[in-house]
Specification:
This protein has about 280 residues and is α+β, with helices and mostly antiparallel strands. The chain contains seven helices and ten strands. Helix 3 runs antiparallel to helix 4 (about 45-75), helix 4 crosses helix 5 (about 85-110) and helix 5 (about 85-110) runs antiparallel to helix 6.
């Protein structure tokens, strides 16, 4: 359990789609109250029930907006995307559930539905967290499953056969070159050409030919999974020596190569497992 909670979590997805998540959660909360009618909503007459649910939705939207935009601005070090972990994500979602519950409780006290008391606040918080715990667990499982699928694509399940050859064919025809799949380290785009780095008899070799990078990836796909780390680079995960990641970028050091390969923001989550 501890190992699971300490796993890296891709917080940049939240920042990238924050407005979409805000609207989606608000609509989900409105439908949840309308369908399941918690907090004694089923006892309210119809016109009043719709008004109360509308207020619940507005309060939820305001609480989530303040949390989604205000807290990352006030506490940027806490919301460090390079250090975000699963336990922080669970705590973050639980905090949002608690804030919405307190906001709804304040609304009910203000309009005379409830009398203010610590016991009632604690009861409402416990009920809200208990109801919200299932969506939190499902949400985390789905996101981590998606991350696991990405890592599975990053780490090929089986090493290519020793005699498997990749036939790299130039764009305008020609014989090209056959290279053992397991010896390919990386591929780099150089304008209209692609440079292949590979190992032969423990020595670094290069092959430059006219082709597009995505075509090279397709040619290698039956034998080897070359994963993009940048729009101009493909790497073989088996040859990753070290990986350094920051909030929006990173660098890769490959075995046999002295140069560092950049990792663009789009691909940072996929290389968390290789971080030193």
């Amino acid at each position: 359990m501890r190992q699971f909670l300490l796993r890296p979590y891709p917080l940049e997805v939240f920042f990238r789609h924050r407005n979409r998540i805000l609207v989606g959660l608000t609509l989900f909360i409105a439908l949840f109250h309308l369908i399941f009618q918690p907090f004694q909503l089923r006892f309210y007459p119809f016109p009043e029930k719709i008004w109360v649910i509308s207020m619940y939705t507005l309060i939820s939207f305001c609480c989530l907006s303040l949390n989604f935009w205000g807290l990352p601005y006030l506490f940027p070090r806490w919301f460090d995307k390079s250090r975000w972990r699963v336990w922080q994500e669970v705590l973050w979602i639980s905090w949002n559930v608690a804030c919405i519950s307190i906001g709804i409780f304040w609304f009910k006290v203000s309009f005379g539905f409830y009398e203010a008391s610590l016991e009632r606040v604690a009861t409402m918080l416990a009920a809200a967290l208990a109801v919200g715990s299932l969506p939190v667990v499902l949400y985390e499982c789905l996101n981590l499953y998606s991350s696991h699928r990405s890592l599975q694509g990053l780490r090929p399940p089986e090493a290519p056969a020793p005699k498997a050859l990749v036939h790299l064919v130039p764009e305008r025809g020609g014989n090209g070159r056959c290279i053992p799949a397991q010896s390919i380290i990386a591929a780099a785009s150089e304008q209209n050409y692609v440079r292949i780095y590979y190992v032969q008899e423990n020595k670094l070799q290069e092959y430059k030919f006219r082709q597009r990078l995505y075509v090279v990836r397709e040619q290698c796909a039956p034998f080897l999974h070359l994963h993009p780390c940048h729009r101009a680079f493909l790497v073989n995960p088996a040859y990753i020596e070290s990986c350094q990641l920051w909030s929006h970028k990173g660098t890769l050091t490959m075995v046999h190569l002295k140069q560092a390969f950049p990792i663009s923001r789009k691909y940072v989550p996929h290389f968390r497992a290789f971080q030193a």
